[in-house]
Amino acid sequence: MTLIEVLIAITILVVGILALMNSVTAGYLSVVFSGGQSTATEVGRQLFEQLR
Predict the structure, then answer these.
(1) How does DSSP assign the chain, residue by residue?
(2) How far apart (Å, rounded) are the C-alpha atoms in residues 47 and 43?
(3) Distances in Å between the alpha carbon of 14 and those of 10, 22, 28?
(4) pLDDT one digit per residue (tens) for the chain, 52 residues
(5) Distance between CA atoms of residues 51 and 15, nearest Å
(6) Of 36, 43, 48, 50, which alpha carbon lies 20 to 30 A from 18's?
(7) How far apart are CA 15 and CA 6, in angstroms?
């Protein structure tokens, strides 16, 4: 392999790794956000039951 081929391969690999990291980060943020929503829903349900 020539130096150019190696550089192109490394560039493609880095782009793929960055895309994967972005997907993992987005997934983690979705889990955190939905956990907060679940907590808020449960608190709201409990308050509603107390008022009933």
Answers:
(1) --HHHHHHHHHHHHHHHHHHHHHHHHHHHHHHHHHHHHHHHHHHHHHHHHH-
(2) 6
(3) 6, 12, 21
(4) 899 999 999 999 999 999 999 999 999 999 988 888 898 899 999 999 998 8
(5) 54
(6) 36
(7) 14
User: What's the token pair of residue 10?
Assistant: 């490394």
The residue with tokens 């980060």 is: 25
Give residue for tokens 């997934």: 27
Q: Read off the tokens for 31.
A: 């889990």
Query: Which tokens go with 29?
Result: 């943020």
> What tokens were used for 9?
């391969």
The tokens of 52 are what? Answer: 């009933």
